[in-house]
Amino acid sequence: MTPHTSTPGRAPAAATGFLVGGAAGFLLTEAVAVLVSLALGEPLDVGGGGPLRAVLVAAVLLCALAGALVGLHRASRPGARPEGGR
Fold it and tell me: Helix axis angle, 10-40 relative to 51-76, nearest 10°?
């Protein structure tokens, strides 16, 4: 195995980063939707699908992937703390 794939704690860090990034992406899209609806005076309609729904889903997925990459990066740093350590 290569050192990159055998570093302990990479999978939990990536999963945690994915979940946290996805949650942040969801909050980001909700905040944008609220601001746009306040500015336009009517809510965004994504019920029928289309490009707006695709953009919102893509934003959440990109944030989730970015979170997973950050988790992987933090887990592979030299001097990373063991689980539960301070």
Answer: 150
